[in-house]
Design goal:
The chain is of the alpha+beta class. Helix content is 31%, strand content 24%. It is elongated, with a radius of gyration of 23 Å.
Length: 376
């Protein structure tokens, strides 16, 4: 039986640990698959980088909405929305979403994204009324292998991004973020190009110089610049120093010698190529000048501001507006409840992105700017 109520009777607040039992009961009643566990609800309330709001009628919990926030970005994701079946025509879902949007914007989020089953027509109608726009379909998304429709809402209006056609490629190893970024750029300028692991590893073999503390090595800016140049892209290498990147973090003298040898070989190859080189600070102003001419930029960042992991990481900057830098992150961290929705066109403010740029002490900055035409 449906229950009617008024806005005045609906109380919305942040969830507490006292709500876990009611949340778990509601979750089991609303969903047959992809359920959030009791343990996960507790974690979201206590430690999660998230917003969990509950709706109450007469002190009874009748709905919730869960937002996940991407660290260091202006992006939030509506991970789950549930309302007791008896109250689904009482406007509670819309109220929860609107309050979540208000709090997300207050927290510095300017974009909310979500996934919804294409056959969930009621939810889609709700999201459309709230001005969410579809932008992608991902196959085999849910536990029962159903597809998902991706939708997004801009909470604070911004100009359209300049490269909406840039494909996303997820790195398949912990050490191939650089090749994955280059592959995305290559695909932009060569649509028929097939992106697969063979190409990913080929680029990695060409560009790697770096010994990590464990596992495989990563790719240097010089190596990535050469790999891009060999594939016909106009390439500009920007660094803020002529020091050998990352060598300071290696203790073994033998490993240092290998890095120095490979790096010197890259330098000599670059000097005999048509790769343009700039030695200056890498910042959003420099990148925007190139992107406004149709370029893309592989940019070295510290992943700490994304996931609190102190490691060098490559992302692909695809657009820069007056307020935001948009980038593709090749690392889709499924263990952190992320999906491709959280990893493509990630928006961060200029100030926040400038904080991400570079790695180590002293901070080493690098960008590989590529295009299919000469830049001015």
């Amino acid at each position: 039986m449906q229950t009617t109520t008024t806005d005045a009777e609906i109380d919305i607040r942040e969830a507490t640990l006292d709500d876990v039992d009611a949340l778990n009961k509601l979750e089991n009643a609303c969903f047959d698959t992809d359920r959030i566990s009791r343990r996960s609800f507790r974690w979201m309330i206590e430690k999660g980088h998230s917003l969990l709001l509950v709706a109450l009628v007469d002190q009874q919990l009748v709905g919730y909405v869960l937002l996940l926030y991407s660290k260091g970005t202006s992006l939030g994701r509506v991970y789950s929305l549930a309302v007791d079946a008896r109250y689904r025509k009482a406007g509670i879902a819309a109220r929860l979403m609107q309050e979540a949007e208000t709090q997300a914007l207050d927290d510095g989020r300017s974009f909310l994204r979500l996934e919804v089953r294409p056959d969930n027509h009621g939810a889609i109608r709700l999201y459309e009324k709230l001005d969410y726009q579809p932008f992608d379909i991902v196959t085999d998304f849910y536990e029962d292998h159903a597809d998902a429709l991706r939708m997004m809402k801009v909470l604070h209006h911004q100009p359209e991004i300049t490269h909406p056609e840039v494909a996303h490629y997820s790195q398949t190893t912990d050490f191939t973020c650089g090749p994955a970024c280059l592959m995305m750029a290559m695909k932009t300028y060569d649509a028929p190009l097939v992106l697969d692991r063979r190409l990913e590893f080929q680029l990695w073999r060409e560009a790697t110089t770096i010994f990590m503390t464990s596992g495989h090595g990563g790719c240097s800016p010089q190596g990535l610049a050469l790999a891009a140049y060999r594939r016909g892209l106009n390439t500009t290498l920007v660094t803020n120093s002529d020091l050998i990147p990352f060598v300071g973090g290696v203790r073994s003298e033998d490993k240092k010698a290998v890095i120095e040898c490979v790096h010197q070989d890259f330098i000599e190859q670059i000097s005999s190529s048509e790769i343009q080189q700039l030695q200056c600070t890498v910042d959003t102003a420099l990148l925007k000048h190139s992107l406004d001419q149709g370029a893309l930029a592989l940019v070295l960042i510290s992943s700490y501001r994304l996931n609190e992991s102190k490691s060098p990481h490559w992302v692909l900057v695809v657009s820069i507006s007056d307020t935001f830098v948009y980038f593709h992150d090749p690392d889709v961290d499924l263990d952190d409840n992320k999906s491709l929705t959280d990893s493509g066109y990630i928006p961060v403010t200029h100030k926040e992105f400038n904080r991400m740029l570079g790695y180590g002490k002293p901070r080493y900055q690098a960008a590989v700017i590529v295009s299919d035409t000469l830049l001015k």
